[in-house]
Amino acid sequence: MKFRKKPVLVDAVQYTPGLEDGYACYVIDGGLRDSRFVGYHDKRTPIPPAFRKVPAIKTLEGFHEISADDWIITGVAGERYPCKAEVFAQTYEAVDGPPHEEEAHERIREAYESSAGLADDPFDSYAGFINGVDYVLEALGIKIEGVNA
User: Fold this and answer.
1) Is residue 81 a contact partner of residue 75, using CB atoms and an 8 Å limit?
2) b/e string for 121-145 if b means 16 or more Cβ within 10 A?
3) Where does the source fall among the domains of life (predicted)?
């Protein structure tokens, strides 16, 4: 059985020094190839110079090492996780334009519900409000194919 990922908006930034939560530390035993992992250290903890340190972020599964070209994604529940650049390019696209249709409808409902003069039955008055959707869409800067685009 195959599945398609639901369209979910996430925040993502390409890794730069300072975004890590800590470091994976390795004791250097005669060279980088002979390094042995000793644990993760918070970035506020002093790390002995004899350790080789690799940037890492804390995820729901524990610490994950990150590389210079990795992307750090913040998911819908605030969780952070790394993503390799090549996987990120195949999986995500920038959202510079209008929001997805579901988000647009949610923003319309929020704008309506926060407006003054609501009737006792919001669903009944929402049906009447739908006639002014073009105005609300324009005010919010939303374009929906087949509605106002």
Assistant:
1) yes
2) eeeeeeeebeeebeebbeeeebebe
3) Bacteria
